[in-house]
Amino acid sequence: MAATFDLVLARYKESVDWIVQVPPPWRVFIYDASETRLPVPLREHTQIHSISNAGQEPRAYLEHIQRRRLFADLADVTVFAQAQPFASAHGHVDPMR
Question: In 1-97, which ranges are continuous DSSP H helix?
Answer without folding.
Answer: 56-70
